Structure formats: structure tokens, C-alpha cells
Amino acid sequence: MACRILAVVLALVPFLVLGCAGPAAAPGSPPVAAVPATPSAATSGTEPAGPPSLAPVVPASTAASFGGSPATPSVGGSSPVATPDPYLSARLHMVDTQMRARDITDPSVLAAMEKVPRHEFVAPDTLGQAYYDFPLPIGFGQTISQPYIVALMTQLLALKAGDKVLEIGTGSGYQAAVLAELTDRVYTMEIIPQLAESARATLDRLGYQRVVSKQGDGYDGWPEEAPFDAIIVTAAPDHVPQPLLRQLADGGRMVIPVGPVGGYQSLWLITRHGGEFKNFDWGGVSFVPLTRAGQPAPSAEPPLRVP
Q: CB of 211 within 8 A of CB of 176?
């Protein structure tokens, strides 16, 4: 008899153990999925074995900025990403190999480049190349600059929180977003109406509403908002526009490519000290020419740093 009772108890053991696994889900509740680990900032200092795969999948938010289905705007935060970001590892790899491995050392600039979602500012047909080491066309003969050039020009501005900065040549809006990670007083001008409109929409969608934009000829600057602590020009005139020099505050910095149309230019850092200006040549670059009112948009020339 004792043996038969022991056999019954042993037969019930599996059911008793299974009952200790945890409470059952309430009727109608969805299953709870495991939450994937979020890469920490520390991963940015480790170079992956090879370039991360960039799947050519167009996020809804990117498609919306180029005429696709609209995305739901993000709410809250100073500069939230509008969509889940499948490109984080690619962006960290970009910063490690294209910036830290060169001469970009300013921690605030590196952090901004790691944060701003470059893939949100490129055209859908170039999305898979968003974090590669070269410029990309954005239409109307214009480009989104090589990531390294964006970082270099931003670093040369030496921005501090609260600095008032003017950008000439909004383009896709990417440079303005990077600047907005460093100061909350960013003004940007774009002469091509279609680019000015699409950049404004992208900046708003990503939460950069504090960036003030204007469509117009950047050669004359923005005198109503002057003076500026920093001015960055992302297209090349053949001389330094005098209105921009006048709008630079005492102690201010201007970064501008200057040179002939169709040739290489020099990237200049200009600093103002009272009525005097000091010029520093940072080497050869190739930018699209600065378009003036009444001139057609130039053909695309990639803004690459000359080795």
C-alpha cells in the first residue's frame, strides 16, 4: 500500500514543480516579450570588426520628408529621434572610424555626431549609405556633406552653450541639427525654397523646433538677428562676404570655404578681435558654390576634404 501511495506522489511532482514557475497571465493579456539590451555609450569607443550592415529599409519618418507616408511626430526631449533607430551601431562606427580616428577630439561634437540621426536627412535611395565616409546628393545640385567635414567645421566653431550661431546653406538640415545639440540659439538660411521647406519639416519632425530657419540669400546674412558668436557657411563663395564679417560678434568665429567655382577651395577659420580679423587656413576642400539670388542652382560637387 505504501508503495502505491509513493508512486502517486511521484507522479504528481512534475505538476507541482511546474506550478511554481510563476503566476499565469490573466485572460486576454498579451505575451510579454524580452526587452533587448540597449547599447551603452561605452560601445562608442570600441571599433567593430567590420562596418555594420546598413539594411536598405526606409523608416516611415524618412519617407515622409521626401513625399512618403507621414510619420507620427515625437513629443518631449530636446532632440528626440522620430522613429526607432536601427542605425545606432552604424552611427557609432562612423564616429569611431571617421572622426575619433582622425582629428575630432571635442567631446561635445563627438556626442552630437553620435546622437543626430543622419539617416533621417538623406534621400530614400541613398539611405543605405547614410553613415558612409562621403557626401550624398539631396537634390537641386546640393549635397549633405561628408560626416567628417560636418564634425570638423563644427569643432572649429568652438561653440559654447548659449552661443548664437548662423548657418548659411541649410541644405538637408543635418548641420543645423548638429549645431542645435551644442547651443539652443541656431539660425539657418537656405536660398533654394524646396530645400528650405523640406529641411524645416525634417527639423520639426525630429524635435528641433528651436532652430530658426529662413529662406533667402545667405550672402547678406541675417542682419536683424546679428551679431552672431559663430557663423558657418556650407557653400563656397569666391571671396568672404563682407556682410557676414560685419555680423560676426567681437570674439566670434566664422568657418567658411573660399575659392573659385569648379576648383578646390580653402577652409578658413576667421576670428574677430574688435575691428581686426585673423585668418587660419585649414586645408583644401571642395564645396558647391554659394548660390546667389537670380543664379541657377549649381551642379553637385561633393564637399570632400583634400588629403
A: yes
> The domain spanning residue 182 has which CATH number?
3.40.50.150
Summarize pLDDT for 37-79 with one digit per residue, the tens: 333 333 233 233 333 434 333 343 443 343 333 333 333 334 5
Instruction: Give the whole-angstrom CA distance, residue 179 versus residue 171.
Output: 14
Q: Is residue 78 part of a domain?
A: no
Instruction: Kindly give the pairing relationship between strand 228-233 and strand 248-258.
Output: parallel
- pTM to 2 decimals? 0.71
Its domain, for residue 175, covers: 85-290
Q: Kindly give, in sequence order, each residue whose CB lies less than 8 Å from that of residue 25, ignoring residues fewer than 6 positions away.
A: 31, 32
Asked if residue 123 belongs to a domain, the reply is yes
On the question of pLDDT at 208 being above 80, the answer is yes
Phi-psi region of 140 (alpha: psi -120 to 50; beta: other; left: phi over 0): left
As annotated, the active-site residues are: 145
Q: Which residues pair with 276 in a beta bridge?
A: 273
Number of domains in the chain: 1
Q: For residue 98, report the phi and psi dihedrals to the nearest 5 degrees.
A: -100, -20
Q: What is the pLDDT of residues 153-172, one digit of tens each?
A: 999 999 999 999 999 999 99
Question: Rounded to whole angstroms, how far apart are CA atoms 258 and 279?
Answer: 12
Q: Note whether residue 286 is domain-resident.
A: yes
Is residue 217 included in any domain, yes or no? yes
Burial 264-278 (b: 16+ CB within 10 A, else e): ebbbbbbebeeeeee
